[in-house]
Amino acid sequence: IDLKFPFRFYGHNITNVTVATGGFLYTSPFLHQWLTATQYIAPLMANFDTRKGGENSAIYYDRRRGKHVKKLHKTLNSDCYDNFIVQWKSVKLGDENITEPFEFEVILAKDGTIKFLYKTIPVNINEISDSSHPVKIGLSDAFYI
């Protein structure tokens, strides 16, 4: 997805990202099998499957004002201009017995700020299995050669 502004990430100007169903943004232009180990922004990387969440399960992105952010997160002090927002809504884990949905998002601001916002995290993150997919929260700028 093309960003409407260059986003500074570890000294690089990122102009597009790949939104992964697995709860993260992939920031490199090169696709390879190690996406979850290299360049990412992960509010909650896990084995999410949007098919398990039914009709309410979706991943949204917004390159504009992001009015939905103010509705979901009243504490956000931002005018929401010049942001890129991705929301994972009612997503469920693909290989777990956890039946409750997760809801969270990431905001990339034009000034380089990254915000992770969480509305519904039904279990302790440490309880999510990483046997079939990495479970991570954070940033990475590793390179694949």
TrEMBL record:
It comes from Lottia gigantea. This is Uncharacterized protein. It is found in: Membrane. GO terms for cellular component: membrane. Keywords: Membrane, Signal, Transmembrane, Transmembrane helix. Its main location: membrane. It is a single-pass type I membrane protein. InterPro entries: PLXDC.
